[in-house]
Recover the amino acids of this structure.
């Protein structure tokens, strides 16, 4: 992890990311929405470290890159607890933390954590309201459907005056609405649509921002895509970055034209030495051209 983070910083990447998973059931019947076969891509016998702990560790190993979580599943947790950890990480990293959030998808994991699955969207919305309250007031109070507290102090606040950036994960209409109401960015993961359709759905998120009394221009479009750097040209797919550096420059250009400002990359080669080589090739042969 330290080698990857320091290499990414030295090679000119803007950010490094950690995924969120607490447990992995040995049997998963819930279809994984980001794989064609519907099977979760991480076997249960593989170690999966806690994301916020890892990012805190990497904050001390780096000095420039932003540190993001893609995405923290809010309904697994009590909001004052994860909010305290996030604010701590934001301070220890000197304001480099990006809070990606989502509602989760794996019903078996919810069941193991005794976390309600059916109302996870409403709980997520309310947790974002809790975060807004404790980061913006000195005497914080909240009375909602799921969470309640009265006249508490929550310190530290965020390191940056504008707050911890909140990027809303999820691809559907409810996620677009959540981004418009609460987010600094809409941050879909492994989108199965092309850049043009992504831009159209982002217009919907901005409409929700305007309906919530927010400036639609304040909402950014960011996304996460799988990537593979190849030696030879490959057939291009609308929802996956793959190909030679020249092909990748062209493909990323289409996302930029669609309004994407920050593109998180998940290098898909399975072995670590090969993945590091992919990162370096992208940095040396593609980044200079974008």
């Amino acid at each position: 992890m330290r080698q990857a983070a320091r290499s990414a910083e030295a090679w000119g990447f803007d950010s490094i990311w950690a995924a969120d998973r607490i447990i992995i059931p040995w049997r998963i019947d819930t279809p994984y929405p980001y794989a064609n076969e519907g099977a979760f891509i991480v076997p249960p016998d593989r170690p999966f470290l806690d994301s916020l702990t890892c990012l805190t560790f990497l904050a001390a190993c780096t000095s420039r890159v932003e540190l993001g979580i893609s995405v923290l599943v809010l309904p697994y947790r009590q909001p004052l607890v994860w909010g305290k950890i996030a604010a701590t990480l934001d301070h220890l990293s000197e304001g480099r933390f990006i809070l990606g959030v989502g509602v989760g998808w794996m019903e078996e994991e919810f069941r193991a954590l005794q976390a309600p699955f059916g109302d996870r969207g409403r709980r997520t919305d309310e947790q974002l309201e809790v975060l807004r309250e404790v980061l913006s007031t000195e005497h914080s109070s909240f009375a909602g459907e799921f969470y309640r507290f009265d006249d508490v102090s929550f310190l530290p606040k965020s390191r940056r005056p504008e707050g911890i950036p909140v990027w809303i994960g999820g691809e559907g209409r409810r996620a677009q609405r959540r981004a418009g109401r609460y987010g600094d960015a809409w941050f879909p993961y492994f989108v199965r649509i092309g850049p043009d359709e992504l831009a159209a759905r982002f217009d919907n998120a901005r409409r929700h921002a305007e309906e919530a009394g927010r400036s639609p221009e304040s909402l950014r479009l960011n996304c996460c895509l799988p990537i593979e750097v190849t030696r030879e040209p490959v057939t291009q797919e609308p929802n996956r970055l793959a190909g030679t550096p020249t092909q990748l420059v062209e493909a990323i250009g289409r996302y930029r034209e669609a309004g994407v400002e920050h593109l998180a990359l998940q290098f898909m080669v399975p072995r670590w030495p090969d993945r590091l080589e992919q990162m370096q090739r992208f940095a040396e042969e593609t980044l200079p051209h974008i």
User: Anything to note?
Assistant: The first strand starts at residue 15 and ends at 18. The mean pLDDT is 96.
